[in-house]
Amino acid sequence: MRRTTLSAVLPVGIVGLAGLALTQTAAARSVAPRDFGFAPSFQLSGRPIGGAKPAAATAAHLAGSRIAAVDDGALVIDADSGQLIKTDKTGKQLAAIDIGKNAGLLTYDPAGKLAYVADRTGNRVAVVKVGEKLEVASSLKTPTEPFGIALSPDKKTVMVTTIADRTLVAFDTASGKEKWRTALGREPRGIAVSPDGTRALVAYLTTGTVDQVDLLESHKAEHIALSTASNPRRSKFSSMGSADSFARGAFTALFMGEQQAIVPFQRETPVQQIGGGERTGSYGGGFEPPISHQLAFLATNGERTSQITAQIGQHQPRALAWDQAHDALYIAGLGSDSIIQIKNASQVSIQEGVSASLIGKDRCGPDGLAVGADGNVMVWCAFTRSVQRVEFVDAKGQLATAAKVGTAGPSLVASSFTTKQHEGMVLFHASQSQVSARGAMACSSCHPDGRADGLSWRIDKQELQTPVLAGRVVGTHPFKWDGGDPDLTASLTSTMKRLGGTGLTKPQTEALSAYLEALTPPTAPARDAQQVARGQKLFDSAEMGCRSCHDGKAYTDQDKHKFQSATLPDADTPSLLGLAASAPYYHDGSAATLEALLRDRGRVHGMAEAAKLSDGQVADLVAFLETL
Ligand code: HEC
Ligand code: HEC
C-alpha cells in the first residue's frame, strides 16, 4: 500500500482566478434578508491542486457529522436536546432515542446499520442499531468529553477525539476494546480518516493547525499549519499581512480521495497594521472585516505537499459534504443560512457552483450536511432542529443550474432552552449588522462554543484576550478585563458598539444574556485526585493567598487590582472556572500555560509569589486549577 502524507506546507504558485460568477437561487424567504455587507465570492489563493479527473470515492463514514444519509432519509444528532433522530425523505421523524444533551458527532456504518455517536457529557460512544427503531447496542467508555468521530475504511476501528482530555482514542468495533490512544492538542474537534486508512486529520478550535495522525504504526500527531496567506486579488487593497492573521475555528475535515483534504476555518486578524506599520484598532474592522471564512485545500502530490485556500461567504463554516458522483463539494456556515456548491471540487477545473439560501421563518443554523443517494443535499438545521432537503441535482441526474429547497421538515424535538434562551442562542451565532459592522462577525466568531478563540484583540489602545463565556458569566460581574462594565447587559451593549453594530433591542439583549447564563461550562479534564488535593491545599493556604482574591463559587472577589502589568492599570479578578479551556492566560494572553503563569512569565507581575514553589508543587497547583 502506497502511503501518502500531508506534511510540510510548501508555497505554491499564485494565479488569480477571474470570472467566477455567483448564482443565487430565488428561494423565497419570509424573513429579513441577511446583511453580509462583505460577501466575497469563491476565490482561490493559488493554483488549483486537483487532478484532471475527479478524486476516488470516499465513504461518508470516514468523517463525523451531525447528519448522515440513511435509506432515503437522514439520521441526525441534535446537540440541543441530545436526541438521535431518524427521519424520512421529507424530514419527518421515524424514530428517536436519547443520547445525552450536548452530544458530539456521529458516523454511520450503512452495511452493519450501526451508528456511532459521541456522547459528550456521558463520556462514551453510543453504538446504536438503526432499524425501524433506534436501540443502543453497546457503549464504549471514552476519556472526558468525546466529540469528533470517524470509522476506519473497513469499519473495524472507530476513532474518537475527546476535548477535555485531549486524546484520540481508537476502539475495535467488534470487541469494543480500546486499541490505542494518542495525545492531542487543546480543543480538538472533528476527525476524518483517509480512504486508505493510513492517516487521519484532526481539526482544532484554537491552535491554527490540523493534526495528521499516523494510523499505521506510531499513532503520533504531526501539526500542519493552516495557511493564512491573503488572497492575491484582494491583498493590494488589504491592510492585513498574513503574519498578523491566525487560523481559528476549524471544526471539521474531509477527504476527497487519497490526495486531498478540505478543512474549513476562520482567518482572524486581531491587530491590523496600517501604512508604516502603525497598529490600529481592528476589533470592529477597518477597511476589511477582521474575520473572513476560508476553506483550506490540503494536497500531497508525490513528494510535494501544498495548500491553498479559498475565501467563502459562509460564516463559521463547519458543515461539509462531498458528492463524488458529481464531484461537487457543499459547505454551509452556522452564521449564514446558505450553502455554497463548489463544482469539480477535486479537479484542476474547480469552480464555484450555485448557492442556495435555506428557508423558514426562523434561522436554520446549518450545522451538518449529507449527500443523499440522489446527489441532493440534506441539511441539519441546528436552531430549528429540522432537516431541509436542497435539490442541487435535476431530474436527469445532472447538477442543476439553480438549487432549490425541496422540503423543509418540521421541528423534530423541543429545545432544551427556554424560548428566551433559544432566541439568545440564535442571536449569538447570527452574523447581522446589529451585532457588528456590516454583519461581518457574530459573537460566536470569537467565542466559538461559548469559549474563546485564544487571541488578543486590539481594542482602542489595549490588546485584550477573548475570555471564555461558558460558565463564567454568573456571579462574576463586573465584566471586561478592566471591570469597566457593571453588568452583563452593559457588557453586551458596549461589545456591540465596539464591534460597529447598530445594537440589539433591550429584549434581544436580555435574551442574549439569558443564553450566555445557560451555556454549559467547559468540562474539566480528569486529573489525579491526590495531586488535585495537594494543589487545592496550596491554593487555600494563607501563604499563597490565592483565596484573598479568587474566592467564592466563581473564584473571584469581583474586584479590581493593580499589578505591575504592561498595559492594564487595573485588572478585574477573573473567574477561574473552566480554566483548562481558557489558555492563554491574563488580559493580554501573555502566559501561554498555567505553568508559565505560576512561574510569573506573563507580562503581569506581582499577582502571586510562586517563586518558592518546587516543580512538584507547581504541577499540583496546575492540576487543581485545571479541575475548576
Ligand atoms: C472580535 C472578537 C469578539 C467578538 C465578535 C465578540 N467578542 Fe466578546 N470579547 C472579546 C474580547 C477580546 C473581550 C475582552 C474585552 C475587554 O475585556 O475589554 C470580550 C469580552 C466579552 C465579555 C466579558 C466577559 C468577562 O468575563 O468579562 C462578554 C460577556 C462577551 N465578550 C460577550 C460577547 C457577545 C455576547 C458578543 C456578541 C454580541 C461578543 N462577545 C462578540 C472578543 C469578541
Ligand atoms: C491580589 C489579588 C489576586 C491574588 C492574590 C491572586 N490573583 Fe490571580 N488574578 C488576579 C487578577 C486581577 C488577575 C487578572 C490579571 C491580568 O490579567 O492582568 C488574575 C489572573 C489569574 C489567572 C488567569 C486567569 C485567566 O483566565 O486568564 C489565574 C490562573 C490566576 N489568577 C490564578 C491565581 C493563583 C493560583 C493565585 C495564588 C497563587 C492567584 N491567582 C492570586 C488577582 C489575584
Shape: globular
**Secondary-structure class:** mainly beta
Radius of gyration: 24 Å
The CATH top-level class label of the domain at 60-185: Mainly Beta
Tell me the number of helical segments per DSSP (H or I, 4 or more residues long): 8
Give the bound compounds: heme C
CATH architecture of the domain at 60-185: 7 Propeller
- Main sheet record: 6 strands, antiparallel
* DSSP helix fraction: 10-25%
**How far do the termini sit from each other?**
47 Å
CATH homologous superfamily title of the domain at 60-185: YVTN repeat-like/Quinoprotein amine dehydrogenase
In the predicted model, the low-confidence regions spanning at least 5 consecutive residues are 1-39, 234-239
Overall strand count: 38
Mind explaining what this structure looks like?
By secondary structure, this protein is mostly beta strands. Among the domains are: 60-185, YVTN repeat-like/Quinoprotein amine dehydrogenase (Methylamine Dehydrogenase, Chain H, 7 Propeller); 313-412, Thrombin, subunit H; 420-518, Orthogonal Bundle (Cytochrome Bc1 Complex, Chain D, domain 2); 529-626, Cytochrome Bc1 Complex, Chain D, domain 2. It is 11% helix and 33% strand. The chain is built from 8 helices and 38 strands. A hairpin with a 4-residue loop joins strand 15 and strand 16 (209-214). The chain is globular. The model is unreliable at 1-39 and 234-239 (pLDDT under 50). The structure holds heme C (HEC) (2 copies).
Briefly characterize the structure.
The protein is mainly beta and 628 residues long. 53% of the residues are buried.
